[in-house]
Amino acid sequence: MRCADGFVVGFQHRRDAERFLCDLKDRLADLSLEPHPDRTRLIEFGRFAAANRRARGERRPETFGFLGFTHYCRTTRKGRFGLGRKPIGKRVNRTLKRIRAELRRRMHHNVYEVARWLGRVVGGWLRYCAVPTSFRSLHRFVFRLKRLWLRALRQRSQKDRFTWNKVGMLAAAFWPPLRILHPWPNTGFAVKTQGRSRMV
Fold first, then answer.
1. Which of 30, 38, 144, 185 has its CA 20 to 30 A from that of 130?
2. pLDDT single digits (tens) 115-159
3. Are 125 and 141 in contact (CB under 8 A)?
4. What is the chain written as a DSSP string?
């Protein structure tokens, strides 16, 4: 295989990042590999990025995509820097497009069976994407999913009178509730040990 997994490396000083990138290209060249030209870049990110860019008259800090999430600089309620994560927009649109095609195929299936199936879809999406700071994106995803389902139901016949409230009732009955399922990133590093063992 002539490809490798992606990774993100953080540096305090830009010169260190530039030196690392140069060394990385040389090392990959020894293996007949090269960094992806569109996905390899240096960006200003972190606690001081917004203030530094604002002082230079530039826009807000850049974002980057990694492991299906868009990572961005945000400000906490206490005014401090915080890492924000939300599902990548293109991936959301791609997922909803596949669901729309499947809803069209299941258009005349039993409504309750479709509601259970969509509940499993939402549950799988939450198990991966329900990270802190992503609640708005999750809420928007579920809203768009309800709208797609209502449109598919109304296309069953010209006399169909399925309402938005009925979709909401079915979603409340068969879909998992919207909530954050994953801890904050720093929680994963709070490892407890017993004696000399690394196991919890």
1. 38
2. 999 999 999 999 999 999 999 999 999 999 999 999 999 888 777
3. yes
4. -----------SSHHHHHHHHHHHHHHHHHTT----TTT------STTHHHHHHHTT--SPP-EEETTEEEEEEE-TTS-EEEEEEE-HHHHHHHHHHHHHHHHHTTTS-HHHHHHHHHHHHHHHHHHH--TT-HHHHHHHHHHHHHHHHHHHHTT-TT----HHHHHHHHHHHSPPP---S--GGGGG----BTTBS--
